[in-house]
Amino acid sequence: MITFENIHKSFGPNHVLKGVDLTVDQGRSMVVIGGSGTGKSVLIKSVLGLIQPDRGTITVGGRATTRHDRDAFLSRFGMLFQGAALFDSLPVWQNVAFRLLRGRLKLPRDQARATAIDKLRQVGLGEDVADRFPAELSGGMQKRVGLARAIAADPDIIFFDEPTTGLDPIMAGVINTLIRDIVTDLGVTAITITHDMSSVHAIADDVAMLHDGKIQWTGPVGTLNDALDPHVVQFVNGRADGPIATIR
Ligand SMILES: Nc1ncnc2c1ncn2[C@@H]1O[C@H](COP(=O)(O)OP(=O)(O)OP(=O)(O)O)[C@@H](O)[C@H]1O
User: Which part of the chain is the ABC transporter domain (predicted)?
Assistant: First the structure.
């Protein structure tokens, strides 16, 4: 279980998080929605210790993130970054096996390669892709490689940051389905950030709406369309009018 309790974060005068409270239950897939710049990425980075909240507590498995041994703690996470964020100079298999080739998770090279090929297979890519370079792959294939990397070290928590950005709707659907399958098959706890309502419906068990520094609404995905919260209604229906200000 991951809990956020009264999380505040400012960057200078920019008060981004103003008391976020949120619980992500073990083995559940939480999707966080909200407009651009509302602090969704800041929230995820705060769990990983990439950003220090000014106030509040984040716990993972009942312990404050600040009280975990950092390397052991980070080894429990998988992460799919926006834009896949692959290393162009490394062949695909080394991208996938990145964490298995160094540090506390280091494996012998042939084992790391075999694991990478197995993970590539899990996301629908053949062994032939292993020795190619990211620039030789389509955007959809790069996302799959990013997914393979996210699951390479058998994490129990995975973060997906805008997993379908830049993909056509069909490829986005494929990636959404893969993410859902990964979350279900591996039994991981997942947090996904997205603007894409089709991702929300495909990936989420639960949804949280972040706006004006706080979680305005949270509930099971099946109740999203009936939610009365005006932020949710505006976001789900893509309306210009509502409490979420738009720049016209
Ligand atoms: N390291 C940083 N230094 C200064 N400001 C930051 C930093 N990281 C984020 N911010 C600011 O915090 C706010 C929230 O950023 P964040 O990236 O979390 O938004 P987001 O909700 O993920 O948006 P998007 O959906 O566009 O990715 C923005 O105003 C951003 O400029």
Answer: 2-237
Average pLDDT per consecutive 10 residues, the chain (248 residues; last block may be shorter): 97 96 96 92 93 96 86 89 83 95 90 96 93 93 93 94 89 91 93 92 96 95 91 87 74
pTM of the model: 0.92
Residue whose CA is at the smallest distance from ligand 1 atom 28: 37
In 3-state terms, what secondary structure has residue 213?
coil
What number does the ligand 1 atom closest to the CA of 51 have? 1
- Please identify, by atom number, the ligand 1 atom nearest to the C-alpha of residue 45: 18
Q: Which fold has domain 1-76+156-248?
A: Rossmann fold (3.40.50)
What residue's CA is closest to ligand 1, atom 3?
11
Distances 98 to 47, 52, 102, 127 between C-alpha atoms, Å: 21, 26, 7, 17
Q: Three-class SS of residue 140?
A: helix
Q: Whose CA is nearest to atom 8 of ligand 1?
A: 42
